[in-house]
Every structure is written in C-alpha cells, then in structure tokens.
Amino acid sequence: xxxxxxxxxxxxxxxxxxxxxxxxxxxxxxxxxxxxxxxxxxxxxxxxxxxxxxxxxxxxxxxxxxxxxxxxxxxxxxxxxxxxxxxxxxxxxxxxxxxxxxxxxxxxxxxxxxxxxxxxxxxxxxxxxxxxxxxxxxxxxxxxxxxxxxxxxxxxxxxxxxxxxxxxxxxxxxxxxxxxxxxxxxxxxxxxxxxxxxxxxxxxxxxxxxxxxxxxxxxxxxxxxxxxxxxxxxxxxxxxxxxxxxxxxxxxxxxxxxxxxxxxxxxxxxxxxxxxxxxxxxxxxxxxxxxxxxxxxxxxxxxxxxxxxxx
Length: 311
What we know:
Keywords: Metal-binding, Signal, Transport. This protein is of the alpha/beta class. It has 13 helices and 8 strands. A 4-stranded parallel sheet has the order 2-1-3-4, with helices on both faces. Strands 6-5-7-8 form a 4-stranded parallel sheet. It starts with a helix and ends with a helix. The N terminus is likely disordered.
C-alpha cells in the first residue's frame, strides 16, 4: 500500500483503523466499503436436464459450481416429465444449462423460451455429439451412453464455465482432462468385451444402451418397430411382439438389455420370455442411480453386460 511507504505514524494508525472498519463490515455499514468477493470465489449456478449431466458438470466444475438437476429420480420417466415452478426458478438464475437435446428433454427448451431476463450458455449434448440419423432410421438421442461423446461434452462444459469465471479456467480444463482419463478406462473395458464377444446378438427393450453395445461390437436383433414403439409409449402390434418374443424362444440372442425405468405389458412379456428361456436380463436406466457417479455407473453397465455374455 502506498500509504505505508511515505506517511508518518499518525497516518499509519488512521489507515489501519480505516482498514479494520472496512474489513469487519459491521451491520449498518455502507455496502460500498465492503470488499466484494472475487469472481473466482463465487459459485456458478448450473442447471442440467438430468442428473447424468449434472454429475458431469459437477466433476468438471468441482466446488466452483452449484448444480441443479431437473430429473434426478430413477423412477421418473424423462419422456413424460413436466417441469415445475421450482425448475423454472432455478433455470432463470442459471449461467450455464446442459440439456440432452434431440427431442429427449424438450421441457428445457420450453422453459428457456418462456424465461425472462435469462440468457445462459446452453450446451446441447446431441449437437456436441455431431450425430445424425442413419438412413431410414430415427436418431438415437441417448448419447450419454457414448463415452467419446461425453469426453467432448466435458470439454464444452469446461469452456462454458471458463467464460463465466475466467480466473478458474485452468481448474475447469484440468478437471475435464481428469474426467476424460477415466473415460479412456471405460472405453478400454468396452474394447475388452468386443474382443471376446464381437458379433454376439442381443436384444433391447429400448434404444437406450445401443451406443454402448455398438462400442462392444454387439449386434442388436430387436425389431426396430418394437423398441421405437416402447420408447414412444405407443402400442406394439401383435405381430411385432411375436417376432420379438421369438428372439428368446428360438435362442437367437444371448442377452436382453432391459430399460427398467420405462416398463409396460410388452416389455414385461419380453423380460418374462427371456427369463423362461434362460437368457440373462441386464437392467439399465436412463438416469443416474442414487449414490453413483457417471463413470462408476457406466462401468457397472459394461460389467453387467460382460457377465451376461460370459455365461
């Protein structure tokens, strides 16, 4: 401080008293004399459409983010979710928003459209993935089951957080790299399954895990109209159901990967057929189970599929 190098004792004492009063911040003091917190010490409010993305944001942002995940209940079907007033309030305060996109969580876009005086940085995971629908098929929007895409997403999250808090940019990018290092271990486990079981036929109740099964070299034999109807909550025709059940009665597949988060009569019949014919059933979910993080969750999914195929 300049005052300490050129002023006498009386001035030094006066300066010290002034500093003491300003730092103490007594009630009723002028707020202009209260030191402001630095940008790096304040947390960044972030909203994620599901706790899957909420967890990844937390791993990248660490203690410098406060994350609200709109869907965090494993029993909740994301496809039928209706946003609450509390969700809208959180979104109105967010500096960064992470959504899946691809029609999966349209409620986020609807809330953003109606929010006033709110312009957060919005990260769309499907757009980050760069994926496009295959010819004659719909886009599989469940991109969080694709490990490389989640690595790209971590980088994008780090960039968005860095723009909001430039002083902490190095921290965010370091955390993103640490997360991607964990993803490489997960991808290695997928390749191990591929080496042992490439070309093995499996069935699914919904397209949810297909990016993971493709990375493992597995072949999905489920009739497309069955899994698409289940995902959209539409009726499954009797003919389609019979073709699907035949996968198990005729032992055409080695495992059924079952989305336990959205079930109904057709999927229950398929699950029963698999069990009756001794075909392993591997349950998966769309949102993060309580007490899990993304890496642990996906690693467990790979391990469960591997165990089923190893039988």
